[in-house]
Amino acid sequence: MNLAFVESPVQLLNVLEWAYTEGDDDLVRTDTTVVVLPPVDPMSRGQLRRMAELARDEGVTVRWQEARGGAGTPLKTLRALTGLLRRADRIVIGDPFSRYVQLLLTMVRARHLTVVDDGTATMEFVAQLARGERLVRWHRRGSSGVRELILAPVTATARRRFTPSRTRTVEVFTSMPVEAPAGITVTPNTFAWTRARFGPPRLTRGADLVGTSLVETGVIDQEQYLEAVSSLARTHGATRYFAHRRESADKLHALEAATGLEIVRPDLPLELIARRGPIGRTVLSFPSTVVHTLPLALVGTEVKVAVCDIAPEWLRDTASPRAQGFLSGVTETARDVQRLAPWRVTAVTEA
Questions:
Q1: Has residue 43 got a pLDDT over 70?
Q2: Where are the beta strands (DSSP E) in the chain?
Q3: Do the Cβ atoms of 147 and 140 come closer than 8 Å?
Q4: How far is 288 from 298, CA to CA, in rounded Å?
Q5: Do residues 242 and 214 touch, judged by C-beta distance below 8 A?
Q6: pLDDT of 265-323, one tens digit each?
Q7: pTM of the predicted protein model
Q8: Are strands 184-188 and 203-210 parallel, antiparallel or unpaired?
């Protein structure tokens, strides 16, 4: 049995992509159980419920497991999942940085472990494995608080689970450009399931802009971000803004007032929204997962993806020292996109 743990809509989408790639028939999908550990924010929960419907339509068993609540909820969740963990031959996870998933991994004895994309975080995960570092999200500053000290043994055990051995294989299923350590298998995610099930999309004449949660995570300044979005919208004639699921309502209201853009809060990951259409002939983004995934999901269409770099002065004091280098790397390694310099935004040219 394949047992997957997901905490976001994109992770669940990529479990479906992995299952589609793995099986020539329905065997892998019908032998896969996905445990959804939903976050608390309403938009993520809504997208997860829609993705769960699509997964069930594909023959995947989906179990919705509330894992966040009172002090005793994590232990109750662990007890509820013990039987599944013991029966699983392969564990599939979407977020190796998740403390919840790391805790679950301490109980895993499966012979096979697969990590599917959780966006650009996969790049940092693989790089930290290769450097032998502890697993820390790129946008967070280091912490030596009590909580980190308590969880240090859990994190260390989870990291060992990601190391291949004579009794365990490790696979990374990704659309990101990564160089995995020796022994780890890298399987390309080409969004074959998405392209087989949806589209091709109807294209609109204008441009669409993709939002980011870099303000919410404390990486960039909100006023700088609003000005950058306004500049992109004016230059490229963008009319719609696809909000990231973690963007705050207050910021989106301010953005709508400043730019006049139509704010769209998607009910599915953007790769599916774009593939189903309608979608603009140009899609504008800041450094994020979509500059890697949208060209794959939209291959064969006439949609052009352009990415606007993050200027150093946009960064807040709260940003991690690694932020600028990581964001630049996201842009520099993206394939089949046009790169736009910050504040020097020029129209996207025809290829």
A1: yes
A2: 2-6, 32-36, 61-64, 90-93, 112-116, 169-174, 184-188, 203-210, 238-242, 262-264, 279-285, 304-308, 338-340
A3: no
A4: 16
A5: no
A6: 999 999 999 999 999 999 999 999 999 999 999 999 999 999 999 988 899 988 888 88
A7: 0.89
A8: unpaired
Select from 259, 237, 238, 229 the least CA-distant residue to 343.
Answer: 229
Q: Are 90 and 2 in contact (CB under 8 A)?
A: yes
The pair of structure tokens assigned to 83 is 């039987």
**β partners of residue 36:** 6, 64
Token pair in block for residue 228 = 């950058």
The Cα-based distances of 171 to 147, 158, 167 in angstroms read: 30, 15, 14
Write out the H or E segment, with its range, that includes residue 78: helix 73-87
Are the beta carbons of 118 and 10 closer than 8 angstroms?
yes
DSSP letters spanning 49-65: HHHHHHHHHTT-EEEE-
- In eight-state DSSP terms, residue 341 is B
pLDDT in tens, 318-343: 888 888 888 898 999 998 899 887 75
Q: What is the dihedral of CA 246, 247, 249, 250, to 10 degrees?
A: 140
Whose CA is closest to 98, among 175, 41, 151, 25?
Answer: 151
* Residue 83 buriedness (CB in 10 A; 0-12 / 13-18 / 19+): exposed
Starting at the edge strand found earlier in the chain, the sheet holding 184-188 runs 61-64, 32-36, 2-6, 90-93, 112-116, 169-174, 184-188
DSSP string, 243-276: --TT--HHHHHHHHHHH-PEEE--SS-HHHHHHH
Judged by phi (left if over 0) then psi (alpha if -120 to 50, else beta), residue 174 lies in beta
Q: Which of 66, 81, 63, 60 shows the shortest CA–CA distance to 14?
A: 60
Token pair belonging to 47? 């997208």
